[in-house]
Structures
1.
Amino acid sequence: TQLLEQSPQFLSIQEGENLTVYCNSSSVFSSLQWYRQEPGEGPVLLVTVVTGGEVKKLKRLTFQFGDARKDSSLHITAAQPGDTGLYLCAGAHGDAGGTSYGKLTFGQGTILTVHP
Amino acid sequence: NAGVTQTPKFRVLKTGQSMTLLCAQDMNHEYMYWYRQDPGMGLRLIHYSVGEGTTAKGEVPDGYNVSRLKKQNFLLGLESAAPSQTSVYFCASTNKIRRGYTFGSGTRLTVV
């Protein structure tokens, strides 16, 4: 089993603070994805990073893929209560159509609570 | 709206009962997956399908069976439910992994 270790598991912060969530593995991934999940709903894709060292920005969210494609981070600047939710990283070992059939390995998740 | 629809949304079963969870997608996706989500354990793959008529085992397949008779539907069956199968079940689909999965809203199953 390819493991993805996500940290921290819980994060409780005040509005306006910055935070970083980490996703680490000993395996190399062809791409890594970040999802956000709200209570009672399924995860929703935020971003896919593909190239080692790649950095993507989505408004106040910055995603980075490690040079060796084994780790990733999600940084949120000036967190808002609307950012509250479960954040999941997921690694892919190949593209759909390849031998891995598009299977994703998920981290355990980080529950983020942003207090007003 | 296009997407993945799961039925039912909630279900309570007694130990030993059977049931089928239905997943339907209208995006013409080839690849479909069943995951279970438990606190502190993320999402774990139960079974998956790479096309109509094909299925394969994932990480935690024991106690579950699946069928994909039509491209748009992926069924997950529990033949004899056990309390350890209490979980939230998610179906997902994709055509290209880099575009990410589209998930359903989940089925919360409790086995008593």
2.
Amino acid sequence: DGGITQSPKYLFRKEGQNVTLSCEQNLNHDAMYWYRQDPGQGLRLIYYSQIVNDFQKGDIAEGYSVSREKKESFPLTVTSAQKNPTAFYLCASSPRESRGYEQYFGPGTRLTVT
Amino acid sequence: GQSLEQPSEVTAVEGAIVQINCTYQTSGFYGLSWYQQHDGGAPTFLSYNGLDGLEETGRFSSFLSRSDSYGYLLLQELQMKDSASYFCAVRGTGQNFVFGPGTRLSVLP
């Protein structure tokens, strides 16, 4: 079965702790994305990567970091510098030929920081 | 920058047709995508319009008018399972995608 996996589904952390969210895809897609969604809101782009070892900031990158060491993996670290980290985090990938317009999403991770 | 506007809520009855509009402002335009998201779930891709006109995929169709900076998603023969939020999205600089605020569709029996 091809798809995108994110783990864990729910994550709880204390303020001041860094936390890393996992995203893996076996679709052989070049591009990968991280979005944040707050209740009742649209998706906001945090970071994206079009190829291995390269990534770009999205609209709300402050307080987040990523790496892209393998085509299949694009982990997101929420650092203690992120002022309001509690949110629903979604990872997506996209085949090159769609130029990003057709994105496939993972099931998401709900992060709660108290 | 980019910004998109959508109605916040739409309500319709089973079997009806509903249209969800999206207007956008972008510095450069490369196409409009539509996604569906059920409560608590992940978005799923519905359609993409790169050129003006209508794209049809089963019960769903999407329309684009680049001269009017406007598009819409048309859902026909509505079913209860179509109750969800619908988002339009455009691409900005590079692969910087911007999503609209979403339209919550409620389908009544």
3.
Amino acid sequence: NAGVTQTPKFQVLKTGQSMTLQCAQDMNHNSMYWYRQDPGMGLRLIYYSASEGTTDKGEVPNGYNVSRLNKREFSLRLESAAPSQTSVYFCASSLDNYGYTFGSGTRLTVV
Amino acid sequence: KQEVTQIPAALSVPEGENLVLNCSFTDSAIYNLQWFRQDPGKGLTSLLLIQSSQREQTSGRLNASLDKSSGRSTLYIAASQPGDSATYLCAVRRGSNYQLIWGAGTKLIIKP
């Protein structure tokens, strides 16, 4: 089925470890996004990419880096994980600014 | 700074009832407002989008309204069903080149 695929679905990291969250979409969407969702809070934008080859900071970019590898793929990297980065991470894509498609999320725990 | 609030955080109602979910925003200068549904362990699904020039949008049993002057939107669900149980989030956009600002959501439970 067409959509947004995120891997992994679950991950436990120790403080200081690094990891990359992978995201791929097969809908030929131009824009891709990384959000984090914490209990009692709305989704907060970490980084986004309006088109292949461009990336921009969102509301909470500190501690993260991204790569728009090609039109399909947009990865999120944590270089040195911290407990404050424990969250559920969502990748999303959109053709324009209207139709969003979300992945199923990655539940990350940093101990 | 735009802030989006959804009250209540949780709501439980018997099956068959009509219900209203609320979304308020602090800056009335919005471009559009969207309602999403989130099921446990899954991503978000877009339900309805209302442009700033519109007053409401309908899809099946769902009706979303927008009152910019009061900074409010409501999502009306008619004849609720257990399958409507989910978290409902609203998000506003300031302009076409701006990103969405999200509410924290209302967790809805429909009791059979």
